[in-house]
Write a structure and sequence with these properties.
about 170 residues; mainly alpha; Ferritin; about 0% strand; elongated; binds MU-OXO-diiron
Length: about 170
């Protein structure tokens, strides 16, 4: 059974994951209308993944005697200045999500809720991977600089990362 404090904290995280899904969906649209098919595919897949992160929390809350609250979300940015800005935003967003997960883990220890603590370990591992992936992509973009043909190749290459990044259901 979840305490009210843990239930509220998990519901906050549900919102964070739902907003993450919206942010990446917006990035997918930005990339798609500009013809960056690879980046768009990557962002659509990433958006789906965030929805999966959200659903996993929703089911956990409901199964543990709580009530998952589906709330209004903050609107994501619609425009991004460049590829670099998109992936810089993605990286910073993942750092923010990691902090949010860490805070949540901290609350479970304070509340001595070891079941939720155990459940959250999956998210802790996932955040290590997500931050590493975002950092890796940013490094590549920094290498490309302003080279247009480099961006064409990057847009093609990023499709490979979609398969690698898709977690098992
Ligand atoms: Fe669900 Fe990308 O953190």
């Amino acid at each position: 059974m979840l305490s009210k404090k843990i239930e509220a904290a998990l519901n906050e995280q549900i919102k964070v994951e739902a907003e993450s899904s919206q942010v990446y969906l917006s990035m997918a649209c930005w990339a798609e209308v500009q013809g960056f098919e690879g980046v768009a595919q990557f962002m659509y897949a990433h958006s789906d993944e965030e929805r999966m992160h959200m659903l996993k929390l929703v089911k956990f809350v409901n199964e543990r005697g709580g009530h998952a609250k589906i709330s209004q979300l903050d609107a994501p940015p619609l425009e991004f200045g460049s590829f670099k800005e998109v992936f810089q935003t993605l990286f910073e967003h993942e750092v923010f999500v990691s902090k949010s997960i860490n805070d949540l883990v901290h609350i479970t220890l304070e509340e001595r809720d070891y079941a939720t603590h155990n459940f959250l370990q999956w998210y802790v591992s996932e955040q290590i991977e997500e931050e590493a992936l975002a950092r890796n992509i940013l490094d590549k973009i920094n290498l490309i600089g302003d080279d247009k043909s480099g961006f064409y190749l990057f847009d093609n290459d990023i499709k490979q990362l979609i398969v690698a990044d898709t977690p098992p259901a």
